[in-house]
Amino acid sequence: MSTTRRSLAGLVAGSALLVSGLSGCGVAGTDFHPGVAARVGDATVSVDEVDSLTDSYCSAIEDQLTKAKNVVPLGYLRSGVVGQLTLVEAAKQLAAEYGVSTGAQYEQKVAELRSAVAALSPDEQKAVIEIESSSAYLTDVLTAVGGQRLEEKGTKNPEPTASAAEGQKALTAWLDDHDVSIDPQFGLAIKDGKAVPTDTSLSYAVGDAAKKGQADSPDQVYAAALPDAHRCG
Known about the structure:
Residues 1-28 form the signal peptide. This is SurA N-terminal domain-containing protein. This protein is mainly alpha-helical. It is 53% helix and 10% strand. The protein has helices at 9-12, 47-67, 74-98, 104-116, 122-132, 134-152, 160-177, 208-214, 220-224; strands spanning 36-40, 43-46, 72-73, 180-182, 188-191, 194-197, 231-232. It is globular.
């Protein structure tokens, strides 16, 4: 299976409730401004960016889903995208503080993806590369940060696994110390350095449909019954 046709698991890990109809809208009872999907320190992730990446990524993988007779709610993908973008933005700011950059793993991943998506449209290429390389970006940055911290503590030539674990601690502390939040419409929150599902989604009443939409593997009957504009596949 090609890189662009890999499992969706990496993208949607930690995704949350199905979201519908709130793109670009302020949410009552929150301090989020219209169009802001997440705040990460002084930076923001826009709803437009989340929607653009989600739509283009869906377009890139839709043939695979159709052939496999799978359907995924777009809200399921949107949550995965906003969670990854939030963590990547935090990692960028953390990397700047420590003066580190990505290494060979990330660069190799991006190169592989560029080759694999050459036949896709420019927007699809951008979406697949940005989404599918995000985990490699996080790993490289956290390993570099953690390695530096361990060396400062006296560890010589720290192992990558230990460095990554130390880097994760640094990211978790950074997230706790800064204003980092995700619009409740996405049903995600940052906890212990990760984007995890919450019950904050305000898009509809919680019920059987909500449970089907937020499952680790969305109910296929439920997903297939969604309007075309709210599903992928």
